[in-house]
Amino acid sequence: MNLQAIKIIFVLLVVLSVSCPLSVSAVEVGDSIPEFSVVTFEDQVISSKDIKGKASLMLVFWATWCPNCKAEIPHINAMFEEFAPQGMRFLGINVGVNDSIVKAKRYAEKYQVKYPLSFDEGSKLTTKFQVRGTPTIIICAFTFSKRNSHIL
What we know:
Blueprint: H1 3-19, E1 37-39, E2 45-47, H2 48-51, E3 57-62, H3 67-83, E4 89-94, H4 101-110, E5 117-119, H5 124-128, E6 136-140, E7 146-151
Parallel strand pairs: 3-4, 4-5
Antiparallel strand pairs: 1-2, 3-6, 6-7
């Protein structure tokens, strides 16, 4: 990852930290993240086992009814366009609360989400990651230890 990419991620995290000082997550910085495997809206399987040790990962837990989730889409799209070609992976996970896969797919199309998305039926993955609100962003380092997360 080049210096400009690191600066952009750092600025994003600082902005999120200032705007979200009460961010809470049971998975602490430095902890290993839980293993997972999901199927995206495009029927692509994304598994932590396939990524771990090969790439960093940004997980975005979101919902269609969350106004801050909608507001962050252009910013995450921009990061996806810049950092995905450099090997960083992105995955948006609809938390499955008061949502449906049909509604989530329509939302993704309407707001032109560019990064891969999946639907967490029964909120199993959301529970596994101990997500307490949306949006929650978790950045996983190459080793798949948690580096940072925020709830807006």
